[in-house]
Amino acid sequence: MKTNKISFEATFTVLTGLMLGYLIVMQAYSVEDINGIVARDRTTNIFREIQILNEKNSELEQEIVDLENTLEQYSDRASYLQAIEDEIVRYEKIAGEVPVSGPGVKLVVKTSEGIDELWFVDIVNELINSGAEAVSVQGIRIVDETNGFDVLPSGQIFLNGIELISPYEFNAVGPSNEISDSLEQANGVVERLLNNNPGVQIEVRSNELIEIPAAG
Amino acid sequence: MPSKLKLIFVVLGTLIGVLITSQFLTSVPVNSNFPVDQLQSREELLSDLNKEQNALQSRIVLLRDKIDKINRENTQEQGLISNLNRLKASVGLEAQTGPGIEISLNDGDESLRNTDETISSYLIHAADLRDIINAMRAADATAISVNNQRILSSTSIISVGNTILINNVNVAPPYTINVVGEPEKLLRYIQDDQVLEDLKKRISVGQIEMNIGDKRFVTVPIFNGSFRTKYINEN
Questions:
Q1: Interface contact B225-A63, CB threshold 8 A
Q2: Is B36 on the interface with A (CB under 8 A)?
Q3: pLDDT given at position A31
Q4: What is the pTM of this model?
Q5: Which candidate, A122, A110, A127, A131, places its Cα nearest to that of A149?
């Protein structure tokens, strides 16, 4: 009887120890938990880098052709003026000084609880990465002068001094198929946003005409 | 059972618990799933593409210089040229120098970037750079670069495996982020406990390194890439 009692006590004590050990290790791992960060950068096939660099070099080659054409136009006074005007029109669109439109994608995020600013950063990054040439968030064109997404201690998110309130609307002009495929790919930003924010509803819609206002 | 024996059992049990749980949670680092010759070919190809990219970027800077020089020498169309120069400056086609801050970031000592292991708290991730840049923009930065890559609104910062691409250019650690703006405001923002919490947690336990200093003069270089305007039309 006494032996049974000791054996029960010993088993219970060892089990308590095992549980303690388990909790210690889990605690250590949870301190190291960086899922929030790592999950934001999906792992891609390592050969994707070659594809990206190839595409990038093709774009650079095209830019060189355009600049050489501009230089050639500079050699004659009439075409020189035309070249400068063409450059102004081009840079006005890039700088967001004029409203722009074109095919693209509209993404709407509906939530009753709000989302962290990192999702705004990641969605805009994904839109640009997939080829968007102009992006707006809640009607605010993102240009070089646009402020970052700013969070107040109360959790409100501001962009250019304007509070962002759900439903959050992102508009992007660019190759609509590539953009929507990139947003909705497995482990892409839409899937990650849904997985990390229960209750969020997301709509991604390709559109033949997306209109983006000039930057304020 | 004597309390001394109980204590021994608890300690033993704890140790065994630690060992068993660690064993289950630890994954064996895999250096690569790809054959060596395939990886070597990839590295050679990447190196060639990066060299080609550098040459193309240099050519772009040279051509833009030539165009600017002709415009500077033109005394007749000052109104048009001044408007053009203003626009170019606003899209990053002009280097910026001014007061600001310099942020240095590096992977931790125990980091292994050349492996398939991408879930490492010892590495600087693309998301870390995106968050810092967003924070600096929120603090009214007027120009930003990372390892001399000008950051524009059209800049994407992504990871491919453990490689970080900025403007689709391969950028390796250590990372130097130059920010032109009001130093006090930039410092106050980035040092706020509520800002960059995940990053600061990893810095506090020594997993990654970050140093910030204010500077009287910080230089952010001119954008040396291309602009995409295939789909946008003026309304």
A1: yes
A2: no
A3: 47
A4: 0.83
A5: A122
